[in-house]
Design goal:
The chain has 271 residues and is an alpha+beta fold. The chain is 51% helix and 14% strand. Among the domains are: 2-83, no CATH class; 134-226, Chitinase A, domain 3 (Roll), CATH 3.10.50.40. It has ten helices and six strands; from the N terminus they run H-E-E-H-H-H-H-H-E-H-H-E-H-E-E-H. A hairpin with a 2-residue loop joins strand 1 (29-33) and strand 2 (36-39).
Length: 271
C-alpha cells in the first residue's frame, strides 16, 4: 500500500508522465484503460521515479502494485478532466509550479550532459584534478598525565629508543607494537593529533605533549610519502559529481548575469 501511494502521489504531482511510445516487441502493452494503453516501459519509468530504496526491488515483485497505481491514476485523471478540475485556477497554478520545477530539472540536466562527458572527465583526471595527498608513518606514546609525557620527552632527549619506550610506557593499543600507527593521511586522526603529527619532519618527535580526549601523546614521525593516486575508474564518480555541480552552478550564474532581478522582503516591501 505504501508503494502504491507513493506512485499515486508521484503521478498526481506530475513527476511521472506516460509517454506516447510506439509498441515494440520487447515493450508490450500491459494494460488498456478506457482505450488508453500502458506499456511495460511506462511501468519501468514509474519505478525509476520512486525513492531509491524502492528502485532496487525486482520488477517482478513491484510490477503488480505499480501497474495498479498507474491504472488508478489514469482513472482518477480522466474523471478529474470530466469534472473540469483541470480548469480550476488553483490547479493551473500548481501545474505551472510543477512545470517550472520540471523545466529547471531538465534544463540543468541537459547543461550537465553537455559539460560532463567521459572525454572531459578523462581530461580532468589526466590534468591532475584528483589530488594526491601526503601520508605519514608515525608512532606515539599515550599516557594519562602531562607529567608522564614530559618525563618521556626528557628520556627521548637523553637518547632513549622511542619504540622501546612505547612498549614500556604507552597505554594505547599500539604500545606492544612500539607505538606504530602505520601510514595515515589527513582526516584519519583527531585534529590535535593530526596537526602535531603533520607538522613534524621525518625522524623527529614532539617536544611538548599533545593532549587529546584520550590523554597525552608523544608523537614521532618515521616516514612521509605521497599517497598513490586513485585510478580513473575509482575517481570517475567523484569527478562526475564535482563537474556536474560546477556545470549546474555555472549555468545558473550565466542566467543570473543576464537577467533583471528585483528582490523584496517577505511582506512584499522593498529591501
Amino acid at each position: 500500500m505504501f508503494i502504491r501511494n507513493l506512485a499515486i502521489s508521484a503521478f498526481a504531482a506530475g513527476f511521472i508522465s506516460v509517454a506516447a511510445l510506439p509498441v515494440l516487441a520487447d515493450d508490450p502493452v500491459v494494460a488498456i484503460v478506457n482505450g488508453e494503453k500502458i506499456l511495460r516501459s511506462d511501468v519501468e519509468n514509474a519505478q525509476e521515479n520512486l525513492p531509491q530504496e524502492y528502485q532496487s526491488i525486482p520488477m517482478e515483485q513491484i510490477f503488480p502494485m505499480l501497474l495498479t497505481s498507474m491504472i488508478d491514476s489514469k482513472l482518477v485523471a480522466a474523471d478529474a478532466r470530466a469534472r473540469k478540475i483541470n480548469e480550476d485556477e488553483e490547479f493551473k497554478a500548481n501545474v505551472a509550479l510543477v512545470m517550472d520545477q520540471l523545466l529547471e530539472r531538465y534544463a540543468v540536466q541537459k547543461e550537465i550532459a553537455l559539460a560532463v562527458t567521459d572525454e572531459k572527465l578523462r581530461a580532468a583526471y589526466d590534468a591532475g584534478a584528483v589530488e594526491t595527498e601526503s601520508e605519514i608513518q608515525a608512532r606515539h606514546i599515550l599516557v594519562k598525565t602531562v607529567e608522564e609525557a614530559n618525563a618521556i620527552i626528557k628520556s627521548l632527549d637523553g637518547g632513549a629508543d622511542f619504540a622501546e619506550l612505547a612498549k614500556e610506557k604507552s597505554t594505547g593499543p599500539s604500545g606492544p607494537q612500539g607505538g606504530d600507527l602505520g601510514f595515515f593521511g589527513r582526516g584519519q586522526m583527531v585534529p590535535p593529533f593530526e596537526e602535531a603529527a603533520f607538522a613534524l619532519e621525518p625522524g623527529t618527535y614532539t617536544k611538548t605533549p599533545v593532549q587529546t580526549q584520550f590523554g597525552y601523546h608523544v608523537i614521532k614521525v618515521e616516514f612521509e610519502r605521497v599517497a598513490q593516486a586513485p585510478s580513473f575508474e575509482d575517481s570517475v564518480e567523484k569527478l562526475r559529481a564535482e563537474a556536474a555541480q560546477a556545470a549546474g552552478g555555472a549555468y545558473v550564474e550565466r542566467l543570473r548575469a543576464g537577467a533583471k532581478i528585483e528582490r523584496f522582503e517577505a511582506d512584499g516591501t522593498k529591501k
